[in-house]
Design goal:
- With 512 residues, the protein is of the alpha+beta class.
- Strand 3 and strand 4 form a beta hairpin.
- Helix 13 runs parallel beside helix 16 and helix 15 runs antiparallel to helix 16.
- 49% of the residues are buried.
Length: 512
């Protein structure tokens, strides 16, 4: 490749990556703040139900991604790649900004979760059209035999977007008091996105159309009905189904386990301080992100299939040992408390006439440097303790652990290993999908299996797995915290078997 063409493709990648990264930031800022948002947009009388409702709303954005793939994929194959993902960028940015402006549940009641749900659906539709366009656009600029390397730069944007969302949250928290962040500061990361979208818009508006698509359009070889040609043609439909059940389905659950499920596990099962979780996850993501490019490049040399299948197999075999080790590293049963440093501070909070909260804040210090704050709240009404839905005393307990340096770096390593699995299955996937389909229906054909695999199977993972863990805990299941892993392990195992049997190496060069 000449130096001029290298500069050209780096310009393409920069413009495409910038916009895609921002869209991922917009999409994941909601997930990164799920614990906080559950107290803002949902009833707070049942924290577990509120958190599950927040995860379900988060998942709703994933569920509609396939519809966005169909709608915007069709536009991309009819009018072009560039203009289509310009629209998706503006739609995503606008929806994210407005989420940051919605009044809380206490202010407008059930209108709050309804509005959030609608905006999440708009985000999902936008993202459904964004990724396929960006991946196709870059692949159609890449030289023959190098699609894995060049498209792998697009693959980094999802993780970079998540990382930036964590950093924006951390910076906002550091600049504001805990009370200010809880009251209004959580809205700032949503507002910031509008500035990022504007910068990306300025960059993208000067981009040229994909030369491959422009050539096909000039020769009259574009599709007249992309949906019918993609899914009504039995030959092409076979590849759509193979892409879904042999690759993207497993890739989706590995991606979300290694990043979002890990984050929720650290915060809600291990009860580690939210800022510490964001920091250690951010470190793991920084260390792991370059491997997207490494495995994308390697897939050009040895094939996409072997790398993706190896990543899935490692995840299947190692998830339970990894999460058992993570849980045990901060399990207080394995630590020694310094009893003489334990402090208990009681307080009362009057809610309204007849309602009173009795709060006990207990601080414990352990010999290894771990610090634990336990806040136990008893709800009283007319002098009697209130009952929950099961007829038991309504007592809420919130535990927050501040972990020591040794535990922090161990958890960084555990998450980093999971990110490596992510890079193996995700690094080559864009080139793999692009090569499966012809130019005239590529945007539509590759977008649907990608977003069904990631949006449905992957996007539902946090809600389904958290539900499994919660149910197992309520039922007293030993090692209840591992039960949520059966979902990604099962999906990845099914995908691994199908992929090993039916994916042929020839797919790598089918439409290269």
């Amino acid at each position: 490749m000449s130096q001029t063409s290298k500069k050209g493709i780096w310009k393409v990648i920069s413009a495409s990556s910038m916009g895609t990264m921002i869209e991922w930031y917009d999409f994941y800022i909601f997930g990164s703040l799920a614990v906080v948002l559950s107290t803002k947009f949902f009833p707070t009388d049942n924290p577990t139900a509120a958190f599950l409702s927040t995860l379900a709303t988060f998942a709703a954005g994933f569920v509609v991604r396939p519809f966005g793939a169909l709608f915007f994929g069709r536009l991309g194959d009819l009018i072009g790649r560039k203009y289509t993902f310009m629209v998706t960028l503006m739609l995503m940015g606008g929806a994210t900004f407005v989420i940051g402006c919605i009044p809380s549940y206490e202010t407008i009641g059930f209108a709050a979760p309804v509005l959030v749900l609608i905006l999440r659906l708009l985000q999902g539709l936008a993202l459904g059209g964004e990724y396929g366009g960006a991946a196709t656009y870059v692949a159609e600029h890449a030289p023959k035999g190098e699609k894995g390397y060049w498209t792998s730069w697009i693959q980094t944007t999802a993780t970079v977007g998540l990382f930036i969302s964590l950093m924006v949250i951390l910076i906002t928290k550091s600049l504001l008091s805990k009370e200010a962040f809880d009251e209004w500061g959580w809205r700032v990361p949503f507002w910031v996105s509008i500035l990022m979208v504007y910068v990306s818009y300025l960059i993208r508006k000067n981009m040229d159309e994909s030369p491959v698509f422009a050539k096909a359009k000039a020769e009259g070889k574009t599709a007249t009905n992309p949906l019918k040609e993609s899914f009504g043609n039995k030959y092409n439909l076979k590849f759509v189904l193979l892409a879904l059940f042999g690759a993207t389905m497993g890739q989706g659950v590995v991606w979300y386990t290694g990043q979002f499920y890990a984050m929720n596990f650290l915060k809600t099962v291990q009860n580690i301080d939210s800022s510490q979780v964001d920091m250690l996850l951010g470190i793991a993501l920084i260390l792991g992100t370059p491997f997207f490019v490494v495995f994308g490049w390697l897939s050009d040399k040895i094939g996409r299939k072997s790398i993706m299948m190896t990543g899935m197999l490692l995840a299947i075999l190692l998830y339970r040992p990894i999460y058992r080790a993570m849980y045990n590293s901060t399990d207080l049963a394995n630590k020694v408390e310094i009893v003489e440093q334990t402090k208990v501070v009681p307080s009362l909070k009057e809610i309204d006439a007849g309602k009173l909260d009795s709060i006990y804040t207990t601080t414990k210090i352990y010999t290894d440097g771990t610090a634990v704050e336990e806040i136990k709240t008893l709800h009283f009404q007319n002098g009697k303790i209130m009952l929950d839905d099961r007829g038991k005393d309504k007592i809420e307990t919130k535990v927050t652990k501040t972990i020591n340096s040794s535990d922090k770096w161990f958890l960084v390593f555990m998450v980093f290993i999971q990110v490596i699995f992510v890079t193996m299955v995700y690094g080559p996937i864009a080139a793999f999908l692009v090569e499966m389909f012809p130019v005239k229906i590529r945007y539509t054909s590759m977008s649907l299996p990608y977003h069904v695999g990631n949006g449905i199977f992957g996007g539902l993972l946090p809600a389904i797995s958290t539900y499994f863990v919660t149910s197992a805990k309520d039922n007293g299941t030993p090692e209840y915290y591992l039960e949520g892993l059966w979902y990604p392990i099962g999906i990845a195992a099914l995908c691994f078997v199908i992929g090993m049997i039916y994916i042929d190496r020839k797919i790598n060069t089918l439409h290269d």
